[in-house]
Amino acid sequence: MRHQICAFLLKLWGFRVEGQYPHAIPKCLIVVMPHTSNWDFPLGILVRCSLSAKGNFVAKDSLFKPPFGFIFYKLGGVPVDRSKNNNFVTSVIDTFEKRDELKLVIAPEGTRKKVSRLKTGFYWIARGAGVPMILCKFDWGKRVVSFSEPVYTTDDAQRDFEGILDHFRGVPGCNVEQGIPADFQQQIV
User: Fold this and answer.
1) Which fold has domain 2-178?
2) Average pLDDT estimate for 114-128
């Protein structure tokens, strides 16, 4: 019943889902872009709920403090301390190794602000943990949330990264001016 309510709210908001959520894949990294607004979070929760999907997400640790922190934990949140120079990639790889099932959602921008560089940790997490990436577009222009087929890393990190960028280039976020432009370029190393 809950997933039907979420599906109705998603439709009421004008969004539809394309592609398949990776229900059958026990461990994967769901790479979501563009992340340009606070509205991306409720959109993601509605999509997840409408598909009766499991999933966790990483977010800055300040969101997990009282009085509302328990809500983020309940929704599957995993706090990240962004103030220290800790090894986030190694920590997440270890988490993947300890769990039988983990679908972790990460936004490579690392913020809702416009960025000139993406954080590349998501790629190194997928590679180090040996898990596929599912590329998830939040296309606010077409009002579509889409899921790709699984994408696996290879020995050519730059070529892999270019393929990922190709998937997301020019997709408008909620705040269009903060998305990844069509001519965006970046080296992974």
Assistant:
1) Fructose Permease (3.40.35)
2) 85
